[in-house]
Each structure stands twice: as C-alpha cells, then as structure tokens.
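Before surveying the methods themselves, it helps to consider a single example record, giving the amino acid sequence and backbone structure tokens:
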Amino acid sequence: MRFSPKTVGVLAAIITVTIWTSFIVIARATAHRSLTPLDICVLRFTGAALVLLPWGAWMVWRRAKDNVGGVLPPSWLGLSPLGFRLTALIGLLGGVGYACLAYSGFYFAPAAHASVLLPGTLPLSTTLMAVLILGDRVTPLRAVGLGLIFLGDVMVGGASLLRAWTDAGSQVWKGDLLFLAASTCWAVYSVLVRKHALQAVPATIAISVFAFVSYVPVYGLLVFSGALVTKLASAPWGEIVFQMVFQGVGSVVISGITFTKMVQYFGPVRSTMITAVVPGLSALGAVIFLGEPLYWNLLAGLGLVTAGIVFGVRAQARPIPSAPDSIADGARVTRAKA
C-alpha cells in the first residue's frame, strides 16, 4: 500500500517528535537505576550497529560494483561509506562525544533541564559554530531569536550554578554543563555535515561504524581490567534489550530516516518549527511520568527557548539573500538527538 507524500510527511513528523521527546524522558528514568551512562552508550552503539554496519557494508560493496575500473570513493574498513579521517571526526563528535556527555548529564540534572539545554539550545550552539567554522553571518532578526534562547539557558543553567554556591551538595550544575557540552558536540558535527555536504544515511552509518569500532572494544577492555564499573551483568535482560532497541535502533536509525523524510516534505524551516515542540513536550512528560517539579525558572526558560526557536526560524523564512540558513542547516542534520 502506497501512502501520499503528505501522509508520509505527517507520520514522519509524529515519529520524530515522539522519539526525540521519549529520548529525554527515558534517559532520565534510566538514571540511577540498573545501568550506568557508559553502559547505555555501549547498548546504543551496539543496537545501531546491528542495523547500520550491514547497511554500510552493502553501500560500500554496491559503490565498488558500480565503479568497476574507475576511481573508488573513499571508505573505511569496508563498512563506512566515508574515509577514515571524516568518519573519525564526525563519529567522535556526533557519536561518542554526544552520547557520553548527554547520558552522563541525566545522572545529575532532571529531564526538564535537558529539555532546554539539549534540543532547545541546539540552534544557538549550531549558529555559533557556523560563525566560527564557516564564517556565517547572523542577521539582526535571527540574533533576536538566538538571544531569547540564550536568556532561556541562563534562566535554567544560571539558577543551577547559583544553587551550587549556596548548596554544597547540589550537583545539578554538572548535568547542565554536560548537556551544554553535548549540544556543542552535536552542533560542531552538524556544521561539519554542512561543510562537507554529507547526506543523512552515509553520515549516520559513519558515526555508528566509528562509535562501535572505537568505543565498544575500549569499554570492554576497561571493564575487564576493573578500571570501569559496569552494571550490565546484573541488569535485567528486558532492560538491556529495550535500551538497545530504543536508544540504538529508535533514536539513531529510525529518527534519522523519519527526520529526513520530514524535511523532504515540510522543508527545513517548517521542520524546525515542528521540532520546537520537543522541549515543552519532554518537560511536560518529565512532570507526568517522572514526577519532576516544574519550577517557575524552568517554565520561563522553556518559554524563552521555544519562542527563540520559532522566532529565529520565522525570521529565517523571510527572503534575505545574504543570510545563511544556520538554524535550518543545524536542524537539517539533527537526527539522533536524542
């Protein structure tokens, strides 16, 4: 049965928003339970590798078959459709770096903070990286939107930093800094994807290949030597399988495909406006499912960040030839965020 392009676009948008929202709530729910942050990372990379490594091997083989007698495009280990240097660069930032920092942040800060500082701050960090790396210019209208996002971050993260001075036992600020570092990693990766004109599927496969080949052996060696504590041996099998399926197949593979389909139908501008609901939905989900309190500063920060994203995207939609699409380009490649 064939679906119309509109149906495919709407379904893709629903699936993308659902996975991105669930990623924040589920990752926070897993914190302090049966798995460590690095345990979740190894399950994420392994789950994604089960799907993407065979896909990458087929893609490399197909390109070699179609280029008989010609110059073969670069690849790595016969698995990544990109060369080693680019595979390692985006894999370190968009794979290992983002996942380790984000999952570690959930062990210190609540999901409402992640809602603001992960997907909410991404347009700001992506634009800043585009200015530094690509030399993009920021128009006054977009600067207003980015300023609102910055104020929202200050409302959330600033309150945690101030609390650290008055409450010596508070560690929420550590989670906030980890979330900001994770957002920066993904922002740099997004800009590199734009700089090298990488397509969604090859870039996602390259990330998974590098993360699996580099992270999993090092993780296993550290666990075997006793230098790293793991809870995988004592965790329920149902939890392990669920994390591999959701974090690996869902957050990496499925959301990558559905986000691409969403952009194909709605375009980058409208797609960014659709994903602007993720911070609010994930914060609401944390209140409903996790029982987290929603303080006034979190509500204010959430509102400022959401308004900044929408304002920035609407300003970008105006026909200004000299303005680079920093916010939309950042969203165009933001697939497993979660």
About this structure: Residues 36 and 242 are 15 Å apart (CA to CA).
